[in-house]
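I'd like us to work through together how a protein chain folds, taking it slowly. To get us started, please write out a protein record for me. Label the sequence line and the structure token line clearly, so we can match residues to local backbone shapes. Once you have written the record down, we can walk along the chain together.
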Amino acid sequence: MERLLLRRLAGEQLAQVLVTLGVSFMVADLCLMGWGGDPISVATPHEFAGFMRLGTAVFPLYRMAVIAIAVVFAIVLWLMLERTRLGAMIRAGVDDPQMARVVGIRVSQLFTLVFALGAGLAAFAGMIGGPILSVYLASTRTCAACSRGRHSRRHRKPARSFVGSIIVGFLYNFGQALLPELAYFILFLPMVLVLVLRPQGLFGGQIL
């Protein structure tokens, strides 16, 4: 998808978002035809089956473990982008792809690698979230990328993605609790508003 579709839409952020959503809907429907739509329950690992108390609050151990894993991955990704040669190449390819190619960076292959890394992280998130949400075919698409700018200052890019993810997560969860029949609408509403009202992103720059 990255090589045949998204690469042909370089610089067209709205088109990239729409194409990605369209492909995801088609893949979800094909999976629905092949495996059906019944949810599959996933057992919580027995090591994390209990609860922990913090004062009067009670927290499931598995959810705390998922939060800890997410924090570790966030730190590792930040260190990779800011402290490694690969991260410097990625930043150079995003900020000035022409100059990056001149100095010998294979920008196309690099972007394919980043795309694959993102897809792998999404798959891993779905795997560890299975015991909490069960496994089912849903049309949920995360639009946190709309909140950050592609050409924003490099040291703030991860933070902007985190802020966007938190905003979407809060909106979706409160939407499910307060207006469950409009949960998917509430999920997509932030993306639509950003694309229409702030196409440069919530923090400036471009969408992706």
